[in-house]
Amino acid sequence: MQTLTKNTIGGKEIMLNGEGFLVHAEDWDKQLAIGIAVAEGIADLTDDHWKVINFCRQTAQNSKSPTLRQITTGTGISTKTMFALFPKGPAKKVARIAGLGKPEGCV
Amino acid sequence: MKKLLILGAGMAGTMAANKLTRLFHERQLDWQITLVDPDALHYYQPGFLFVPFGVYGGDDIVLPKRRLLPSDVELLQACIVEIDHEHNRVQLSSGEKLDYDFLIIATGADIHPEQTPGLSGPAWGDTIHTFYSFQGAVALFEKLRVWKGGRLVVNVVENPIKCPVAPLEFLMLADAFFLAKGMRDKVQLTYATPLSGAFTKPVAASHLNTLLAIKGIQVEPDYLVEAVNPDMRTLSSFDGRELGYDVLVSVPINMGATVVGESGLGDDLNYVPVNQHTMLDERHPNIFVLGDAAALPTSKAGSVAHFAIEKFCANFLDHVNGRQMHESFDGHANCFIESGHGKGLLIDFNYVTEPLPGAYPVPWVGPFSLLKETRANHWGKMLFKWIYWNILLKGYRLPIPTDMSMTGKQTAEAMN
Ligand SMILES: Cc1cc2nc3c(=O)[nH]c(=O)nc-3n(C[C@H](O)[C@H](O)[C@H](O)COP(=O)(O)OP(=O)(O)OC[C@H]3O[C@@H](n4cnc5c(N)ncnc54)[C@H](O)[C@@H]3O)c2cc1C
Fold first, then answer.
1. End-to-end CA distance of chain B
2. How many domains would you assign to chain B?
3. Rounded Cα distance, B340 and B217, in Å
4. Atom number, ligand 1, closest to the C-alpha of residue B381
5. Is there a catalytic annotation at residue A106?
6. Complete DSSP assignment for B299-344
7. Which of A46, A91, B27, B409 has its CA 20 to 30 A from that of B9?
8. How far is B107 from chain A (nearest CA, A)?
9. What is the mean pLDDT of residues A66-89?
10. Same domain, B244 and B261
């Protein structure tokens, strides 16, 4: 559907779609998540980051990441904190890092 | 006699009642349909968009619900306060209980300004407005009539919202409205949206972003409002961006009916999770959910309710007789997008295919053009009001396919 780009992240070659989401879900591992996070401007993934990433991976449906509201309800982490953890568009940012598709709460 | 109870006599409830009544008569089946709704009036909600600009008034968009239903359908004016799905009965605000064999939840979605700090205080109706309710649209009409200009900000608090293109249409109509009044240079139009652009799907987003730019409408993307400060007339976002306004046109968070949540049937926004192809609540095989009340991954729009109900009615008798449902809803949606100056666009999509350019409903022919500004699309939108009252609500078939078609559409690959 869209232009795909080949990227090298943390020494690994992966395909991202036009909006920066991982194309092949099986490429994902923790090492890659750390690499994508750096590319997204997050130098360090803390326990709180991982709590959110893991939640998203566990609740993803058809590999679509949950929406911000689903994340805040599901993890108990506030919206404000989510913005501090994953600045500028937290739901999309965590979806990219978690190797999931774009959250589709909204159509 | 079997009892079918429908909660909510809005668009979906009315369509379903009309269609099923005809079906039961045809098959000579003995069913009693009862609808419950606290509001005696039916609002043509797509018309709310035009009210602030004086295009439609109350006469165009409001009718008594009773007049839209067959005489043998019972309509109770009451609010449902509990859905006791374990015992197949509901409770009305009067305390009265109604039992059912099958239940259709069609309680829609509504705005909740009280969920955003600062939004619903005394400034509501003064400097803070909405066109997502009839009263709101009328108040905004009064405001715009005498407004001398300044900063007008349209803000969507959170998605999903009903008719996700309506805020864009509002901005484009506002641009044309102020131009016609000779005061466009005195008005700054801004769209603060939680999305990264004008629309969710990439192809439509790029068309719509261009259109907004041409009209001088600024977009504040990825804007998730944290609070409104009515005294300072500012919005602040979770990432610390402040936006000043003179008139705020808000689309408050949309949520399903409270009773849905309180009865344990809803998700985090009180929408009911259902099978997205049959609209059956799979936890309760005698409950279907139609219209905006369902948590479907497509737009909350009348067109969706219409296509879905075509499928639902074809399935209903199979389901109640223990047979497998053979019809499957594909998430088909189409929406006209008014762009001002007597023109409009049209988008057509489903669960898997994003809106693409092409012609509709007849491939290559039209008369409507997808993702293109034309006069025919505008007339389609205006004609929709007549179709809504006379065909859709009455449950008659429109001569258009229920499933989305790819024929004649330009795919994203072909465009690149
Ligand atoms: C500004 C605006 C513009 C729009 N433009 C378009 C458009 O251009 N095209 C399009 O296709 N769609 C459009 N829509 C969306 C369309 O109006 C809705 O998708 C449609 O009305 C959904 O029908 P529904 O029956 O699910 O909900 P509704 O029509 O909202 O009906 C819900 C009913 O449930 C009742 N109810 C609620 N709670 C209870 C309770 N506890 N007990 C009993 N009854 C209850 C309500 O009173 C109401 O009558 C627009 C909507 C808005 C707000």
1. 59
2. 3
3. 13
4. 8
5. yes
6. -B-HHHHHHHHHHHHHHHHHHHTTPPP-------EEEEEEEETTEE
7. B27
8. 20
9. 93
10. no
The answer to whether residues B119 and B229 touch, using CB atoms and an 8 Å cutoff, is: no
Structure-token pair, residue B327? 């019809």
Q: Quick check: is B88 in a domain?
A: yes
pLDDT classification of B416: cutoffs 50, 70, 90 = very low
Are residues B267 and B237 part of one domain? no
User: A interface mutation test: which of B168, B193, B220, B239 has the most A CBs within 10 A?
Assistant: B239
Question: Would you state the structure tokens that stand for residue B410, as one six-digit string?
Answer: 């330009």
Question: Parallel, antiparallel, or unpaired for β B366-370 and B358-362?
Answer: antiparallel
- Residue of A102, A61, A60, A74 lying closest to B267 (CA atoms): A74
Does B276 lie in the same domain as B409? Answer: no
Domain coverage including residue B350? 333-415
Q: Are B222 and A89 in contact (CB under 8 A)?
A: yes
CA distance B316 to B279: 11
Neighbours of B210 (CB within 10 A): 11
What integer pLDDT is reported at residue A62 of this predicted model? 76
Confirm whether A106 is domain-assigned: no
Nearest to B252 by CA among B234, B227, B230: B227
Provide, as residue numbers in chain A, all residues whose Cβ is less than 8 Å from the Cβ of B269: 69
- Do B87 and B41 fall into the same domain? yes
| pTM for the structure as a whole | 0.94
Q: Which two tokens stand for residue B311?
A: 């499928």
Q: Is this prediction's ipTM beyond 0.85?
A: no
Which band of pLDDT confidence, cut at 50, 70 and 90, is reported for residue B213? very high
CA–CA distance from B350 to each of A66, B50, B82, B308, B403 (Å)? 20, 26, 33, 11, 9
What would the two tokens of residue A11 be?
Answer: 């020494």
Contacts from B196-199 at CB under 8 Å and sequence distance 24+? B196/A89, B196/A92, B196/B221, B196/B222, B197/B221, B198/B168, B199/B164, B199/B165, B199/B168, B199/B355
Identify the CATH number of the domain in which residue B303 sits.
Answer: 3.50.50.60
* B13/B97 same-domain check: yes
Calculate helix-pair angle for A47-59, A68-75, nearest 10 degrees.
110
CA distance A61 to chain B (A): 11
Note the pLDDT of residue B413. Answer: 63
Burial of B252 (0-12, 13-18, 19+ CB in 10 A): buried
Count helices and strands (H / E) in chain A.
5, 2
Does the beta-carbon distance from A79 to B224 stay under 8 Å? Answer: yes
Q: Tell me the backbone φ, ψ of residue B281, rounded to 5 degrees.
A: -80, 105
